[in-house]
């Protein structure tokens, strides 16, 4: 069976795009409430607000309409101020892109785009976190546009080989976590953390309490001896990056 045939079979079995009756009722309630609080959500010129988008925010708050609505309204206001032009341009994130630390290529067996982040290539620099946050939005938006029909999530391989204290950036880690959980909820399908050095665990202990329970379930620390077998359970060899024994070269996020 070819990779495309396997992918189609996985999509058929996954049913991730189907909204059940209870969810549909809550989606309708939340849409009505959000539109009453923020009429801009009805504006055709604004970012598309479809039922699946609303469902992601609902699922992030365990289908609690009130909590999900509050999160979604905050997201709409953030998007209007932080991304006023609708997207982040490459010229706005040149310093971050120059670090050549994030890549996008291939799909896992469920059709989720695969991003690779090389932690040892991240260095903090003087000034605010604004460019780093813009880079995250640039990257997440690009990943979302690479999702095939019937898919809402992506996979990240966070590679910490060579990571040291010079790469440690607590403000960036917490900023990334906030953007992922608050503004791109239920987009992360799985995060594989590979080649994690012992010294990283000190940082992880500080970050861990800020990770919500839904996100925690998606994080997997992979043992070095089981790296290839673990990734191949989720990713076909034809779609796995070459650095992990697959067939695909790494493609910088800006070139993907």
Write the topology of this structure:
Elements lengths: L2 H12 L6 H17 L13 H10 L4 H18 L11 H4 L4 E6 L5 E6 L11 H16 L8 E6 L10 H14 L4 E7 L5 H8 L5 H4 L2 E4 L4 H8 L22
Parallel strand pairs: 2-3, 3-4, 4-5
Antiparallel strand pairs: 1-2
Describe the structure in your own words.
Helix 2 crosses helix 3. It contains 10 helices and 5 strands. Helix 6 (130-145) links the parallel strand 2 (113-118) and strand 3. It has a 5-stranded mixed β-sheet with strand order 1-2-3-4-5. With 256 residues, it is of the alpha/beta class. Residues 1-12 have a biased composition (Basic and acidic residues).
Properties at a glance:
globular, five-stranded mixed beta sheet, 10 helices, 256 residues
* Helix-strand makeup class: alpha/beta
Distance between the termini: 27 Å
Largest sheet: 5 strands, mixed
Strand content: 5-15%
Overall mean pLDDT stands at 90
H/E element order: HHHHHEEHEHEHHEH
The tally of helices reads 10
Helicity, as a percent range: 40-55%
Rg result: 19 Å
Tell me the total number of β-strands: 5
**Low-confidence spans:** 10-15
Overall spatial form: globular
Widest sheet: strand order?
A: 1-2-3-4-5
Short description:
This protein has helices at 3-14, 21-37, 51-60, 65-82, 94-97, 130-145, 170-183, 200-207, 213-216, 227-234; strands spanning 102-107, 113-118, 154-159, 188-194, 219-222. With 256 residues, it is of the alpha/beta class.
């Amino acid at each position: 069976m070819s990779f495309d045939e396997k992918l189609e079979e996985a999509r058929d079995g996954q049913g991730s795009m189907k909204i059940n009756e209870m969810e549909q009722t809550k989606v309708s309630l939340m849409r009505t409430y959000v539109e009453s609080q923020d009429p801009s959500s009805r504006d055709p010129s604004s970012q598309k607000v479809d039922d699946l988008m609303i469902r992601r925010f609902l699922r992030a708050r365990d289908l609690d309409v009130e909590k999900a609505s509050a999160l979604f309204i905050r997201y709409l206001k953030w998007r209007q101020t932080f991304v006023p032009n609708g997207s982040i341009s490459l010229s706005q994130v040149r310093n971050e892109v120059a670090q050549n630390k994030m890549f996008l290529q291939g799909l896992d067996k469920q059709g989720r785009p695969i991003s690779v982040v090389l932690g040892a290539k991240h260095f903090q620099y003087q000034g605010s976190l604004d460019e780093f946050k813009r880079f995250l939005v640039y990257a997440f938006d690009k990943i979302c546009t690479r999702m095939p029909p019937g898919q809402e999530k992506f996979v990240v391989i966070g590679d910490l080989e060579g990571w040291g204290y010079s790469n440690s950036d607590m403000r960036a880690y917490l900023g990334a976590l906030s953007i992922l959980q608050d503004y791109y909820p239920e987009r992360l399908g799985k995060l594989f953390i590979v080649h994690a050095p012992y010294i990283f665990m000190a940082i992880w202990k500080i970050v861990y309490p800020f990770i919500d329970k839904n996100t925690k379930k998606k994080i997997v620390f992979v043992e070095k001896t089981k790296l290839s077998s673990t990734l191949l359970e989720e990713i076909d060899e034809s779609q796995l990056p070459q650095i992990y024994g697959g067939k695909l070269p790494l493609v910088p996020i800006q070139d993907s």
